[in-house]
Amino acid sequence: MAKKPKKPKVPKLKRKAFKLWSLKVRMAYSNKCAICGSENNLNAHHIESRKSASMRFLVENGAALCPLHHKFDSRNSAHNGPVWFHQWLLQNRPKTIDFILLHRDDPVEETVEYMLAVLTKLEQPLSSDELDTMGIKTGSDEQKLL
Questions:
Q1: C-alpha to C-alpha distance for 56 and 14, rounded to whole angstroms
Q2: Which of 54, 34, 39, 67 is nearest to 134 (CA)?
Q3: Which of 65, 68, 115, 135 could make a disulfide contact with 93, Cβ separation 3.0–4.6 Å?
Q4: With bands split at pLDDT 50, 70 and 90, how would you rate the model's confidence at 139?
Q5: Hey, is 143 helix, strand or coil?
Q6: How far apart are CA 114 and CA 133, in angstroms?
């Protein structure tokens, strides 16, 4: 008698989703820091905490940041200067703020089925709506920040 294939487990699916999310966010910014354009050691930063189940795998909730603007500048980084970063978002990504406020409390139950749907979406190319919310417009040759 053949064994049934193992059903994937949520923690393993979440790890895979975090990796895909990070890759997709960095790709959205053409592998450049959203703030300074640096291409060195980019991080994908969650704007609304990744503790927020409804936001953690939405690329619209991400920004590609160099280490300096992610957390190592003592004043002008997303982690150490939250007011500064919020102001930067208001000036550069106002649609992102609106999107997060609209969806941050959406109910989510992280089941296997939900996580498989998340992975399927993350494996798709970025949509024009996602790029628009992120403040990115596509040019004929490359993606450009608005």
A1: 10
A2: 34
A3: 135
A4: low
A5: strand
A6: 23
Q: Which residue has the tokens 């300074």?
A: 36
Strands 143-145 and 62-65, bridge-based pairing: unpaired
CA atoms within 13 A on the CB side of 132: 3
CB of 54 within 8 A of CB of 104?
yes
Give the Å distances, CA to CA, from 6 to 2, 3, 100, 111, 135.
Answer: 12, 9, 35, 15, 41
- pLDDT band (50, 70, 90) for residue 140: very low
What 3-state DSSP class applies to 70?
helix
Average pLDDT value over all residues in the chain: 91
Residue 50 neighbours by CB under 8 Å, 6+ apart: 18, 56
pLDDT of residue 17: 98
What residue ranges in 17-142 does DSSP mark as E strands?
Answer: 43-46, 62-65, 136-138
How many angstroms separate the CA atoms of 119 and 21, rounded?
A: 9
- At residue 65, the 3 state secondary structure works out as strand
> pLDDT class for 146, splitting at 50, 70, 90?
very low
